[in-house]
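>> received
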Amino acid sequence: MNEEKKYFSMTRQQLAQRAGVCLATFNKWLKHDLPALKERGYQPRSLLNPSVVKYLCEKYCIDV
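>> returned
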């Protein structure tokens, strides 16, 4: 059975920890992916919305 994962809003720090990288590295990822993230409603200095979390988890193989 193929279950759809549910993604929730989280901070950049929380997602960086789940990815196993420091916040500085994670911020570089965000900067690199800024156009795609903005399409998904990314707002700097805000919680990462579920759409952004899903995109980053799928792109960088982050298990949440």
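>> Residues 50-60 form the longest helix (11 residues).
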